[in-house]
Structure prediction request, 235 residues.
Amino acid sequence: MGDYRSVSETQDKSTPDTQTPGTGSPAGTTGAADAPVVKPVIRAAAAKRANASVIGMLIALVVSVGAFLPIVLMNPSPKSEGYRPNVDVSAIAQNAAGVAGFTPVAPGTGDTFSPNYARWESGTGSGVPVWEVGYLTPKESFIGLVQTARANPTWLLQQTKNAPVTGSRNAGGLDWELRDTGKGEKSMVLEHKGTTVVLTGTAQLDEFAVLADAVVKSLESNPAATVSPSATPSP
Prediction:
């Protein structure tokens, strides 16, 4: 029998050495730090197509803006004073005269006071038929005008917001009763030629005076009311 130790030595020498001298790393591997940096390369044709797409998008945007710009310019935004309806107070007043029993006032204020409504109300709920006109003043406040030939104390208190009488003010050569709520709203009341006219709003008294003067001129140019009032309001 041979020496078994010689066989063992042969087997040990045939075992491959998997360690790289001086590194301690397995043979055939490379550290991450030694890996080369890979930079993507875009071919010229691909780059040309990408640039063409961007240019096409810009051209489409310019065309869209050019198409909508004339529409925007042709439809400018409304002015700061807002929309004001074209209300012909005189014409509506003439139409209402037949049912009112008197010719409703149509104050001539020119372009300074802008009416935004004018109508005849039959008074189904209150029992007092009235002529109504709403005015926007030059200072952007509001004054509402009501006129009736059937005023009564209860109706008058409702129209003036239960405001107490605080004095009088002359406008158009006549003395108007002044009522003030103390909360910004005030009223001027006039009884003349068979009708009662009430002006109510938040405007300043100088604007009330201008409208009241125009109301008196309209009243003086109209015939007196032919409808007798159902009650005379208390002063």
Q: What stands out?
A: The longest helix spans residues 44-74. Strands lie at 114-121, 130-136, 142-148, 165-171, 174-180, 186-192, 195-201. The chain has a mean pLDDT of 80. The radius of gyration is 47 Å.
